[in-house]
Specification:
heterodimer, A: mainly beta, 16-stranded mixed sheet, 16 strands, 44% strand, B: alpha/beta, Rossmann fold, six-stranded mixed sheet, four-stranded antiparallel sheet, 35% helix, 31% strand, binds adenosine-5'-triphosphate, binds magnesium ion
C-alpha cells in the first residue's frame, strides 16, 4: 500500500496492519477488529470513555427506539432496507470501535436517494427524535449526478446513539448536509459521516452541535474525481460538563481537489470540553490540491477546556495551497470596546459579539428559514449561559 | 450649554503584562458646546491616546487628572456610560466586528443612547436618510460592522453614527485621513450638520488644513510630547502647515 485511502477494501486489515500514516484512514466493519479502547489510544485520548455508556466495550444493549419523520420533496426516494443492502458501508470504513460496533449491530438502514438531475423544491428533512435506550443506525444519502439537494438531519431527544451516515455526491452534483445535534442534555452520540465526492461535485457539511452529554462526530471526506470540492463547517456551543468532539478527515487522494474546514465553538461553564481534530492528507502523486482548515474557540469562562489539533500530512510536493489556523481565547475586548463606545451596555455588547461570531457560520446555511431555525436554537442555548 | 474639560490628564499605554509607557503628560483643554477645536501635532505625540483614554479604551490607563462633562467626572463612568452621557469618538481605525450587522448594531446603539427603542419603521427611515446624506449605499446596513469596509467607508460610517447619536462632545480622530476629495466634502457636511444646532463641541484631530476649510475651527492647538504645547486661533493652522512642528517638538523634548 502506498497511499492512505478511505476507500473500503474487500478485506479489512483492522488496526492490525502497519499504518502508512498515523491518521485514522484505516478501519473495519467488524467490531472485533478493534481492541476495546483503554483511553490512551490516539483516537480516544480526548474522549471520556466512562461516559460512552458501554458503546466502546460491547456492554451496551441495543434496546432503544427513535421516532423518525422524513419530509422528502419530489425527486427523492426514501427506503428502509435490511443489513444486506449493498449500498450500506460503500462510502468508507468505520474508523473506530464504536462506529464498527454500530455497523455490526444495526438492524435497518435508511437510504435517501436524490434522482439524477433533480433540483429539489425544498430541503429533505429527517427529524430524528431519540426516545431513550441504546440504538445503532445507518443512513445512506445518495445524490445522483447533477442533482442538487439540501438534506437536514435534525436530531433531538434522549438516548445513546452510534452509527454512520454514508454520503455519495455523484458527478456534478451538489449536496449540503446540515446535521443538527440538538440532543437532550443526557444523550450520547458517536457518529461518523463518510462522504465520497465525485468529479466536479460539491459537498457542503454544516454541523451544529448544541446538546448531549457527549457528542463525538467524525466527518470524513474522500474524492473520486478531479474538481471535487468539500466544505466542512461546524458550530458548537458547549456548556457545563458537556463534551463535544469533532474529528474531521479530508483525504485528498485525487489531484485537483479542494477542501475547506471551518469549525467554530463557544464554551461556557465548568468542565465544558471542546475537541477539534482536523486531519488533512494530501496524497502521494497528487497535484493541485487546495486545502485550508481552521478552528476557533471562544472560551467564555475560565473553567472550560479546549483541545484543538490541526494535522496536515503532505505526501507530495505539488500542492496549490494548504494551511491551517487555530485560535482559542476570550471575547475580543476591542470588539466589546467598540460597541460599548456607542453606548451599548456591556452585557448586550457581549451578546451581540457572541451572536456575530456564530452568525458568520450560520449565514453559510443556504435557506433563510433554516438559518433562522438554527439561530433560534443557538439563541436559546446562549440564553442558558447568560 | 455644555462644558467639556480635560484637566491635568496623564495616561499610560499598556504594552504588556507589566509593561507600560506614559504618553499623556498633563493635558489641559476646555471645549464648550458650539466650539470646534482642531488638534494638530506630529505622529506619535499622543493625539489618539488622548481620544482613546477619554473614551475608555482598555489598552490605556489614566494615572492622573480628570475629564469633566458639565462638572461630572466621566472617568468614573464605564465605557458605555460615557457614550450615553454624550461623549462620542470617531476612531482613527474603526474596529471590525464580524457577524454583527451594521443595522442591528446601529439600532442597539441608538436605543441605548436615546434610552428607548425607536419604532422600527421610523428608525429605518431615519437610517436610510442619514445614509443617503453621507452617500452610503443602503446595502451596507446588512453587512457586518466595518467588516471589509475600505478606509473611507469606515470613516463615513463613523460620521453616520455621529449623526444618529447626536453627542454633546465629538472627538474626531483623523476622520479626514484616507478620504478622497468628494468623500471629504460629504463627511465634512455631516460634521457640520451635527454641529448646526450649536449644542455640540468638537475636538477635531487632523494633520491637514484641508478639512478645516470645511469644518471651521474656533481654536487650533498644537499637541506635542503628550500635552497641548500651544493654542491659538484658526490662523495657527496655516502657520503649522507652512512651518511644521519642529519648534514644538524641540520645546517638548
Ligand atoms: N502598544 C504600544 N506599545 C508601545 N508604544 C505604543 C503602543 N501603543 C501606542 N504606543 C505609542 O504611543 C505613542 C502615541 O501614539 P498615538 O497613537 O497616540 O499617536 P498619535 O499622535 O495619534 O499619532 P498619529 O498622528 O500617527 O496618529 C506613539 O509613540 C506610539 O508608538
Ligand atoms: Mg493618531
Amino acid at each position: 500500500m502506498t497511499s492512505p485511502s478511505t476507500e473500503p477494501r474487500a478485506h479489512s486489515h483492522g488496526l492490525g496492519g502497519i499504518p502508512f500514516s498515523k491518521l485514522a484512514t484505516h478501519g473495519s466493519f467488524d467490531v472485533n477488529d478493534f481492541p476495546v479502547p483503554a483511553g490512551r489510544e490516539e483516537e480516544w485520548r480526548f474522549t471520556p470513555l466512562r461516559r460512552l455508556r458501554g458503546l466502546h466495550d460491547g456492554t451496551a444493549v441495543a434496546d432503544g427506539t427513535d421516532k423518525v419523520d422524513i419530509d422528502a420533496p419530489a425527486g427523492v426516494t426514501v427506503e428502509t432496507v435490511g443489513r444486506d443492502d449493498e449500498r450500506i458501508g460503500a462510502a468508507g470504513f468505520p474508523a473506530d470501535r464504536v462506529t464498527a460496533q454500530a455497523h455490526t449491530s444495526f438492524e435497518k438502514a435508511t437510504v435517501v436517494t436524490v434522482a439524477q438531475g433533480a433540483a429539489l423544491e425544498r430541503p429533505v428533512t429527517i427529524h430524528r427524535q431519540a426516545q431513550g435506550g441504546t440504538r445503532y443506525d445507518q443512513f445512506v444519502i445518495d445524490v445522483k449526478p447533477l442533482a442538487e439537494a439540501i438534506v437536514v438531519l435534525n436530531q433531538t431527544g434522549t438516548g445513546v446513539r452510534a452509527g454512520s451516515v454514508d454520503i455519495h455526491v455523484a458527478e456534478g452534483a451538489r449536496l449540503t448536509l446540515v446535521s443538527v445535534q440538538d440532543w437532550d442534555r443526557d444523550a450520547v452520540d458517536v457518529s461518523q459521516h463518510n462522504a465520497q465526492v465525485a468529479k466536479d461535485a460539491t459537498f457542503k457539511s454544516i454541523v451544529i452541535t448544541l446538546g448531549g452529554d457527549l457528542v463525538r462526530l467524525s466527518p470524513k471526506v474522500a474524492y473520486k474525481g478531479r474538481g471535487a470540492n468539500a466544505e466542512l463547517h461546524g458550530l458548537y456551543f458547549t456548556g457545563d460538563g458537556q463534551h463535544h468532539e469533532h474529528r474531521s478527515l479530508i483525504d485528498h487522494n485525487m489531484s485537483n481537489t479542494r477542501s475547506r474546514v471551518e469549525y467554530k465553538g463557544a464554551l461556557s461553564g465548568k468542565d465544558a470540553h471542546g475537541v477539534w481534530i482536523g486531519d488533512v492528507i494530501i496524497g502521494e502523486g497528487t497535484t493541485g490540491t487546495d486545502s485550508y482548515e481552521h478552528n476557533r474557540n471562544l472560551q467564555l469562562t475560565d473553567d472550560t477546556r479546549v483541545d484543538s489539533v490541526p494535522n496536515l500530512e503532505i505526501f507530495t510536493g505539488e500542492v496549490e495551497g494548504a494551511g491551517h489556523a487555530a485560535a482559542s481565547g476570550r471575547l475580543d475586548d476591542i470588539h466589546l470596546f467598540y460597541l460599548r463606545s456607542r453606548g451599548i451596555p456591556e452585557e448586550e455588547a457581549r451578546r451581540l459579539v457572541i451572536r456575530g461570531y456564530f452568525l458568520e457560520l450560520v449565514n453559510r446555511i443556504p435557506v433563510e428559514e433554516l438559518r433562522e431555525e438554527i439561530m433560534a436554537k443557538v439563541e436559546s442555548k446562549l440564553a442558558e449561559h447568560e | 450649554m455644555t462644558k467639556f474639560e480635560i484637566r491635568g490628564l496623564r495616561a499610560d499605554v499598556l504594552i504588556g503584562e507589566d509593561e507600560r509607557q506614559e504618553i499623556l503628560k498633563g493635558v489641559d483643554l476646555t471645549i464648550n458646546s458650539g466650539e470646534t477645536h482642531a488638534i494638530m501635532g506630529p505622529n506619535g505625540s499622543g493625539k489618539s491616546t488622548l481620544a482613546y483614554a477619554i473614551a475608555g479604551h482598555p489598552r490605556y490607563e489614566i494615572t492622573e487628572g480628570e475629564v469633566l462633562l458639565d462638572g461630572e467626572n466621566i472617568l468614573e463612568m464605564s465605557v458605555d456610560e460615557r457614550a450615553r452621557a454624550g461623549v462620542f469618538l470617531a476612531m482613527q481605525y474603526p474596529v471590525e466586528v464580524p457577524g454583527v450587522s451594521m443595522s442591528n448594531f446601529l439600532r442597539s446603539s441608538v436605543t441605548a443612547v436615546r434610552g428607548e427603542a425607536p419604532k422600527l419603521r421610523q428608525f429605518s427611515k431615519e437610517l436610510q436618510g442619514a445614509m443617503k446624506d453621507l452617500a452610503i449605499d443602503p446595502a451596507f446596513a446588512a453587512r457586518g460592522v466595518n467588516e471589509g469596509f475600505s478606509g473611507g467607508e469606515k470613516k463615513r460610517h463613523e460620521i453616520l453614527q455621529l449623526e444618529l447619536l447626536k453627542p454633546k462632545v465629538a472627538i474626531l480622530d483623523e476622520t479626514d485621513s484616507g478620504l478622497d476629495v468628494d468623500a471629504l466634502k460629504v463627511v465634512s457636511e455631516g460634521v457640520n450638520r451635527a454641529k448646526a444646532g450649536g449644542e455640540m463641541g468638537v475636538m477635531l484631530i487632523t494633520h491637514y488644513t484641508r478639512i478645516l476649510n470645511y469644518v471651521k475651527p474656533d481654536f487650533v492647538h498644537v499637541f506635542a510630547g503628550g500635552r497641548v504645547a500651544e493654542s491659538g486661533g484658526p490662523e495657527l493652522a496655516d502657520v503649522l502647515e507652512s512651518e511644521g512642528y519642529e519648534r514644538f517638538v524641540k520645546a517638548g523634548a
